[in-house]
Amino acid sequence: xxxxxxxxxxxxxxxxxxxxxxxxxxxxxxxxxxxxxxxxxxxxxxxxxxxxxxxxxxxxxxxxxxxxxxxxxxxxxxxxxxxxxxxxxxxxxxxxxxxxxxxxxxxxxxxxxxxxxxxxxxxxxxxxxxxxxxxxxxxxxxxxxxxxxxxxxxxxxxxxxxxxxxxxxxxxxxxxxxxxxxxxxxxxxxxxxxxxxxxxxx
Length: 202
Hints:
CATH class: Alpha Beta
CATH topology: Rossmann fold
Strand content: 15-25%
Radius of gyration: 16 Å
Number of strands: 7
Helix content: 25-40%
Order of helices and strands: HEHEEEHEHHEHE
Strand order of the largest sheet: 3-2-1-4-5-7-6
Largest sheet: 7 strands, mixed
Distance between the termini: 47 Å
């Protein structure tokens, strides 16, 4: 294990999984199937499944890690090989800013999800926001071969995307602390949000 893996894993990733799992435990509807799109190592989804034994979780990713903590199906990053309305909840945890076309992949998630879509992603807001977010992405993902497209959206751009896809925001929050101090002061706050979306149309 490299020094970066060790430091990031113990200082950042473990806390991030715990904080996001706390949020998802409260957000995911009861007795449902969850598809974690872009699940990475699967640790977050596995922790969620362990804490919410009423749900069933599987993963999808363009890069399937042999050591993933959940079953993962390989996808091409553009289309989802699931039937219409065949799962209850689709979630994207820090995934959409890596996509060539975030709107198209969200449309696919809307097609396959019966109940809801959960998104944790970034807001392009504040001083040097793009530089700070790009650095976070590089530290967390580059060594795993993840494509770093760094296509971040403002709050207004996210709202436009959701409106275009007839997705209604049921709940959205930036009121969580992902990182230990002093990293939270640099990399946290309104740069992050989690939203629960429901279909508002066909």
